Every structure is written in C-alpha cells, then in structure tokens.
Amino acid sequence: MNRALPVPTWSWRASVRLEVRALGWMFGATLPAATVVGVLVGSAVPDFGTDDTWGSTAVGAVGSAVYMDFWSLVPAVVAAAIALPFTMVLGMLMRPVRRRGLHVLGTAVLAAALAAVPAAVWPPTWPLFAVVAPAAGSAGALARIGGFRRADRAASASASASRSGPAAAAAPDARLSS
C-alpha cells in the first residue's frame, strides 16, 4: 500500500470522482452498516434501550438503515458539493506525500470531520451525526483505496501495452472474443 502513487497530480475531476465514489460507498455500505450498529448498540444501553426482543430490535435496525439512506440522500449530495473544495485542497496538499496510507487516512479524517460539523454547530443532533461521521470517514477511505486500485489497473494496462508494442495494442484482446 506504500508504493509510489501512479498519478502525482490532482485535479477537480479527480476530486469529483473521489466524492462520487465515496457517496456510492456511503449509501451502499457504510451508512447502512453504521446505522444498524448504532441502533443495536443504542438499544443495549439502558438509558436508550427498550424492552424489545433481539429479533424486533434487529428488524428495527434494518428498517432504520433503509430510512436513514432514504432521508439522507439529498443532504449528503449537498454536503458532498460543499466538501468539494476541501477535497481539492487536500488532494493538492497531499501531492508530495508518497505513502498511500496517509492519503487514505487524510481522506477519511477530512470526510468524518466535515460530516461532524453539523453536530458541532447544532449539538442536539449529535446522535444522528455520531452515525453519519464514521460512515462518511469509512466511505472516503474506501473510495480513496478504490481510486488507487483503478489507477494501478490503468498503469499496468498501459505498461503491458507499451511492452508488447503497437501491433499487440491494436490486436483484439483474446479474453473479449471468448
């Protein structure tokens, strides 16, 4: 994970791509998982919990995950648009850094911190953003890792095409014809 970065520059396009990937991860995986964990942990705490059975709590947790995904769609897209300049600045500041782990960590911390801002501004919303901030940080990290994998695949494809010469690059791929 600490190999040299395949693309040393950062652009607005890279920022938008990173945020779109992070939104996909957030709504597809991290926000539902964080919501389910939050409901299950919250129900286990005596002050927040109810006298429901484990099964009804689990069903309620899954229902809460769907509810959270649905109602947070528009605010999350707006938040991603607001976060775009911060993502661009982070990408520009991280240009000289060659350790991929630091890029992933920086992206995760930025996403989680920006997602926690509303709870700092309006403290009564802390239970909501206690779930959203870790989900946003995880989604940012997963999106950044996915961006590295995509860049690695593109670099290896171009390297193999340049090694085999122009005739091989023009020939159809055998895997596509089978």
Describe what this molecule looks like in 3D.
α1 (12-44) packs antiparallel against α2, α3 (73-93) packs across α4 (100-121) and α4 runs antiparallel to α5 (126-170). It contains six helices and no strands. By secondary structure, the chain is mainly α. Mean pLDDT is 84; it is low at 173-178.
Biggest β-sheet strands, sense, barrel: none
Give me the count of strands. 0
Give the low-confidence spans. Answer: 173-178
Q: Would you tell me the structural class of the helices and strands? A: mainly alpha
| Fraction in helix | over 70%
The SSE string, one letter per element, is HHHHHH
Number of helices: 6
Taking all Cα atoms into account, the compactness measure Rg is 21 Å
Q: In what range is the share of β-strand residues?
A: under 5%
Question: Averaged pLDDT, please?
Answer: 84
What is the distance, rounded to the nearest whole angstrom, between the alpha carbons of the first and last residues? Answer: 34 Å
Envelope shape: elongated
Architecture blueprint of SSEs:
Blueprint lengths: L11 H33 L9 H18 L1 H21 L6 H22 L4 H45 L3 H4 L1
Helix pairs in contact: 1-2, 1-3, 1-5, 3-4, 4-5
